[in-house]
């Protein structure tokens, strides 16, 4: 059960975050670790080789945690249309007294 070779993707991610000092019970820390981990992968593809057992060389990068991507206008329009359709459906299905 504690053998890293038998971990799934989620458990591997959580255990790596925990071993590097992040509090993986808090969403903010989990997001910060995810950003650091992904930026590390993009900058050094061989830094996280699965056969490499050394985790001491991982240092968190300064994260841009507060900056989130804005949804596209197409996605916003879809959400708006869905809200309008739900409101129209509720209006149509109202009981008449």
Structure report:
The protein is mainly α. Helices cover 49% and strands 0% of the residues. It starts with 8 loop residues before the first helix and ends in a 5-residue tail after the last helix. The model has no long low-confidence stretch (mean pLDDT 78).
List keywords for this structure.
single chain, 97 residues, mainly alpha, 0% strand
Brief rundown of the structure:
The chain has 97 residues and is an all-alpha fold. The chain has helices at residues 9-19, 27-43, 73-92.
General shape: elongated
Task: Enumerate how many helices there are, as a single number.
Answer: 3
- Decide which structural class fits the backbone: mainly alpha
Specify Rg, calculated over alpha carbons: 22 Å
Mean pLDDT: 78
Fold blueprint:
Elements: H1 9-19, H2 27-43, H3 73-92
